[in-house]
Amino acid sequence: MNLLRRPAGLTGKVHDITAADAGWGYVGFGLYRLQPGDHVAEVTGDREVVLVLVEGHARLTGAGQDWGVMGDRMDVFEKTPPHCLYLPDGTDWTATAVTACTLAVCTAPGKGGHAARRLGPDGIALAPRGTGANTRHINNIAMEARDVADSLLVTEVFTPAGNWSSYPSHRHDEDDYPRMTYLEETYYHRLNPAQGFAIQRVYTEDGTLDETMAVKNHDVTLVPRGHHPCGAPYGYDLYYLNVMAGPRRAWRFQNDPDHDWIYRRDNPA
User: Fold this and answer.
1) pLDDT at 269 over 80
2) What percent of the chain is predicted at pLDDT more than 70?
3) In this structure, which topology does domain 4-266 adopt according to CATH?
4) Which of 21, 78, 169, 221 could bond 227 through an S-S bridge, CB–CB 3.0 to 4.6 Å?
């Protein structure tokens, strides 16, 4: 499996990762980079969708409604809450760019259990996580605490230069609730300044998967199983948009036993 996906170009649909293309069963991820006036349209089919306006403004329609012009931040690193839209399976949607914009299309199997609705910016607040060089900041778009989707879990993470995130190393690759849930995951990466890079490692404890990737602006990484920490080099802030899905809409994970002491030190009982 190719875990590192580079964008297909500078404009248009630069990522189109289906579950079949990824070689797994749940998560899909698409990304449009649009110029003012560009128009795109898709049908959801048997999948639910969370549209995330990563940056810029666009007029959105979906599930038979005109949602108007959505979007606020013009640069993702403004860190303001994103404008997002949930659409169930069996619907369609359109987006017309009002400004240059970046639109993420997060998908997973739908079950018809939730109606179309705005997911942001209301209800999303930037929150710190971790300590020291493990500090990062989270915009929880559609995580478990918000009953807004059938399968999808979606969140944004901002990691300051020199810090780590998705760390201590953890995995969620077994369907053994409540100890752990099976969740496939994609990371859509951005760097500030844009010419930077970050490091992501994806590995299993038995060593059957162990890949370390230098990710650049607009790259996507796939996490089919195993642990998946990220590091931001000095001088470059890291953003990523996470999409997760599996048979159960819950996030339960286990730390790598070799590094769990870090979590226990920072989170004493």
Assistant:
1) no
2) 100
3) Jelly Rolls (2.60.120)
4) 169
